[in-house]
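Sample entry copied in:
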Amino acid sequence: MFKLSDPRIGLMRLVWWQEAIEKICANKFIEHPTAQALSSVISESKISKAWLKRVVEARINDASREVTDLPESIEELEKYAEDTASTLLYMTLQAGGIRSTAVDHAALHVGKASGLRLLLKSLPYHASRNRHFSYIPAKVAAKHGLLVKEGGRSEIRLDSREGLSDSVFEMASVANAHLLKARELADAVPFEARKALLLAMPAQVLLDSLSRVQFDVFDPRLARGVLGKPPLWFQLKLKWYSWRGKY
């Protein structure tokens, strides 16, 4: 998911951060301003080393994939979303001194929805860059007639825009289910923790925008403003949710 001319550069950066985290947690000095800032946060907030490593390792595994490698199932994408977006939320809550099983459970679902949102939003970019929909699971693509096998490899073909929309709808439905589960826990989530869960709002906005264009990720309306909405509308909605303690 790196917008770089050479994906190897992104992989090298991630490996550098993987090594930097080990040094930071071993109290070794690193001559890098961002690493020094991270070291201060880790020291002050006692951020879990395991969570930091989980995020970077998930990104490394993703960046190491060939563009033709497809995830097997939606569950695989959910695991990636949990290891990245959900884990970042766990660390945000930990840094804020918020410790609650209900909050962590809500963060799990918000993170999965947010991670799937990012993958859905990236589909047109990856298709234009390498002509592959590398984040549509093989099982979903096969179910909707998009998967073909060539030279012993599975590949997604856009012979059917309807099949693509149906695949996107299936992935979006999973993201929406996670948002619903997170909101079912709202009464048990302390008010001060809810701002950390505002990532749910952009996910909901994209799902609503996709619904309006019949889940066609190539519809130009999705590229307008923020997730298909005017920037001012988006900012006001975000502030409204924050003020009301919603997510």
About this structure: DSSP finds ten helices and two strands in the chain.
